[in-house]
Amino acid sequence: MLRGTFENMKSVNKTTILNKIRLSGSISRADIARETGITPPTVSSMVKELIRENLVIESHLGQSLGGRKPTLLQLKEDGYYVIGIDAGSKTIKGIISDLVGNIYSRAEVDIHPNITKEEFLTSLSAVVEQLLRGYKQYIDKILGIGVAMHGVIDIETGTSLSSVNSGLINVPIRQTLEKRFDLPVFMENNSRAMTLGEYWFRNGSVIKGFAVINIGRGVGSGLILDNKLIHGAQGLNGEIGHASISLDGEQCKCGNIGCYETFVTGDAIVRRAKRNISDASENLTAEEVYRLAKQGKKEYIQVLEVTGKFIGIGIVNFIHTVNPNKIVLSGGVMKSKEFLLPSIQQTISERVLIGKLREETIIEVSKLGDDITVLGAAALLLNELFY
């Protein structure tokens, strides 16, 4: 799909109607008009366009309230496809998905430490090319490319400004991909993209304050208020991993002392285990800590329980600052959830200011698993189309 075509599909009334159909599952033209306040003739006209554009289909007849049975409208799930890219610091993963997050194709390449900007962009393009090769016959049905990138992002220009984990600076991702593939490209920080993916594909647009906290090699978060992803004045909203929670803690990769990341990441778990367990392997990994905990090794269980307490402290700070209705926890560290969650929940219960926060703030672990980032990247396109 050419870049201009994507914008031609959007209008205020059309996106309002399209989103109403998406959220409803199936709905009649009359109900759309009543629930949105758009006049019935305009709804009828816009629906014709949406059907012609392959975004909406007519489905089974609805229940009659005395007159003729209404025809219901549904989103055409496979009417278009989107490419989602998780540009990580060790691998670049890509998918092609439909409008509701069903995945049809995957591609992945490893990237080496100290990779150059040019090598990174070549690898990124290679993943997109691999995906497109398998979908040549559907190229006109691909809406565009969403990229989730770790670190600080300029979403206006689609540039990766800085990444602590990979060391990459000022990488022109949007410019490179748009020039090479002639598709619209949208870009976002990986934790904020995860938030959008979780919101779109697991939670719907029903919660006013919704957040994801991602805990893996680093820590980040995303926040959605009233269907809108929050970025902050300089685009740094969500960088909770670099909030200082100790004045005399360890030095973080960012250069500061006592950052939240230094207490709760996979590397932090390994350091804690090596400090506290005399016979811990020199080659210990966070995955190994989890494996040994599952075997019932008390010292390793305690390491994870302490980690859960620190995670809980960060969540309490987040709740007191942002006060969301729901927080979803994601990332590799949360694969140890059976050992972490009890400590997390106990810490939150003990430390939140009032009982209402304890009782009404929903805390969950993501069910999207390892696909949360690529689906979040895909959701960047859908968010543009539907809103």
Task: Compile the SSE list and pairings.
Blueprint: H1 3-8, H2 12-24, E1 27-28, H3 29-36, H4 40-52, E2 56-61, E3 71-75, E4 81-87, E5 91-97, E6 103-110, H5 117-133, E7 142-149, E8 152-154, E9 159-162, E10 169-172, H6 173-181, E11 185-189, H7 190-203, E12 209-215, E13 219-225, E14 228-229, H8 261-264, H9 266-276, H10 286-294, H11 298-322, E15 326-330, H12 337-351, H13 355-360, E16 362-365, H14 372-386
Parallel strand pairs: 4-7, 7-11, 12-15, 15-16
Antiparallel strand pairs: 1-3, 2-3, 4-5, 5-6, 8-9, 9-10, 12-13, 13-14
Helix pairs in contact: 2-4, 3-4, 7-14, 9-11, 10-11, 11-12
Brief sketch in words of this structure:
By secondary structure, this protein is an alpha/beta fold. It has helices spanning 3-8, 12-24, 29-36, 40-52, 117-133, 173-181, 190-203, 261-264, 266-276, 286-294, 298-322, 337-351, 355-360, 372-386, and strands spanning 27-28, 56-61, 71-75, 81-87, 91-97, 103-110, 142-149, 152-154, 159-162, 169-172, 185-189, 209-215, 219-225, 228-229, 326-330, 362-365.
